[in-house]
Amino acid sequence: MSSISRTLAAGLLSTASAATFAHVALPPGPAVAGSSYEAAFRVGHACQGAHATTALAVRLPRGFTLQDVPAHAGWTTEIDRSGDGTVRWTADSAAQALPGHQKSDFVLRGKLPAEAGPLYFKVLQTCDVGTADWAQLPSEGTGAAGATGTAGEKPLFPAARLLVVAPGSAPVEVAGAWLRATVPGQSATGGFMTLTAGVPLRLVGVSTPVAGVAEVHEMKMEGDVMKMRAVPALELPARQSVELKPGGYHLMLMNLKQPLAAGQHVPVTLSVQDAQGAKSTLSIQAPVMLAPAGGASAPAHRH
Ligand SMILES: [Cu+2]
After folding, report:
1. What is the pLDDT of residue 296?
2. CATH number of the domain to which 24 belongs
3. What is the 191 CA–ligand 1 centroid distance (Å)?
4. How far is it, in rounded angstroms, from Cα 274 to Cα 87?
């Protein structure tokens, strides 16, 4: 692929994301199946052409058991238990409505279903002018289960999504994972991804059958020279994305047992530890690439 077509692809991507205005969303990071979950729906924008949000209605997904809804000052809460249930907040007056330039969290608590997988909350936002129904689900085949799923066509009005993981598996979501392809004779390469934990975690280990040694590395400037070294653990704060990327933190695969060719997929297992010291693992299939999908935003980094 030429660098011109890569630049074009990157340009198209950024145009698409600029056109998408802020949606009603849950904080990133997964939660554990069967656990009690506090869903904080972040409203950060009024409907298109509107000045303020006047009501919000969350349709609860099947299998989600509502426990309680904390009061939202200046707004009235109604709970409709028909069907799978709906929680609705309505501003008590125009003065209490949420201005488009302000952000607010609308919170409800409930028990998550026992099954793992993505859970979608459809949210109807009502404004002084018009409504926005955040109810679109990702189209079939875009890797809904997706530890490594690449983003397909993004819906304009996505439903709020929560990834539910099985008890015992690491509550961390992996996006955009890739390993850099090797050239003949190369014995080491880098691995990159974005990790988002649902609770405070530390990445304490990595393993893959293709490498004799796998470590988490950091890049540091020492004088004029960029150096890298292994770190014993990488903090993954709750609900924040931590990017492993060329020039920054990365997975280092050494003593490679085979060349890594673009297009193949390689199993990678991440070990994490929670604040109580409990360890769990997460396994993904990382694609091997020459460069990140959608064009590189960071400078190339060679080992
Ligand atoms: Cu390295």
Report:
1. 45
2. 2.60.40.2230
3. 9
4. 32
Tell me the CA–centroid distance for residue 252 and ligand 1, in Å. Answer: 5
Ligand 1 centroid to residue 63 C-alpha, Å: 43
23 plus 101 within the same structural domain: yes
Q: Ligand 1 centroid vs 42 CA: distance in angstroms?
A: 37
- Residue 295 within a domain: no
Do 197 and 101 belong together in one domain? no
Does residue 63 lie in a domain region? yes
> With bands split at pLDDT 50, 70 and 90, how would you rate the model's confidence at 7?
very low
Total domains, the chain = 2
What pLDDT was estimated at residue 55? 97
Range of the domain at 206: 172-289
Last residue within a domain, chosen from 131, 146, 165: 165
The C-alpha atoms of residue 255 and residue 141 are separated, in whole angstroms, by 36
When the pLDDT of each residue in the chain is averaged and rounded to a whole number, the result is 86
Quick one: pLDDT at residue 201? 96
How many A from CA of 139 to the centre of ligand 1? 37
The whole-angstrom separation of Cα 284 and Cα 146 is 9
The CA 238 to ligand 1 mean position distance, Å, reads 25
What is the average pLDDT across 114-138? 95
- Tell me: do 72 and 50 sit in the same domain: yes
pTM: 0.74
Interatomic CA distance for residues 129 and 133, integer angstroms: 13
Q: Which two tokens stand for residue 64?
A: 């989600």
